[in-house]
Amino acid sequence: MVVTILKARKKTMQLELCDIFGKKFFKDTPVPTASAFYQNRNKMDSQLFKAILQQMNYDFYNSFKQEVKLYKNLRLLAIDSSVLTLPNTKVLKDKFGSTKNHNKESLAA
Predict the structure, then answer these.
(1) Model pLDDT for residues 15-48, shown as the tens digit of each residue
(2) Are 26 and 32 in contact (CB under 8 A)?
(3) CB under 8 Å to 106, separation ≥6 — which residues?
(4) How many other CB atoms are found less than 10 A from the CB of residue 36?
(5) Is the overall model pTM greater than 0.85, yes or no?
(6) How many CB atoms lie within 10 A of CB 13?
(7) DSSP secondary structure, 54-107, as one string
């Protein structure tokens, strides 16, 4: 469940669940509904995700100490709202996947 939440979805939750439960590990397990998934997600302790993030940060910054550059002894992070429209090609769809709705299929990059 945690991996499903952390994974960047390219499909609807129901399709993601069908993909997961179609794997060999869950072959004989019925596919839960998206509603059941969301209801159980709400029961999870948010501290779990905080602990995962802290561990990931610790591992990353301890593994790459020499490569991490600091600004005035602080990590500097920046985010902008740039958007890059990529061509809707088969090569990119194979690499990044695609999403579908009733009308069309779009690149999910």
Answers:
(1) 888 888 877 677 778 888 989 988 988 888 889 9
(2) no
(3) 88, 98, 99, 100
(4) 11
(5) no
(6) 16
(7) HHHHHHHHHHSTTT---BTTB----------PPP--HHHHHHH-EEE-SS-EEE
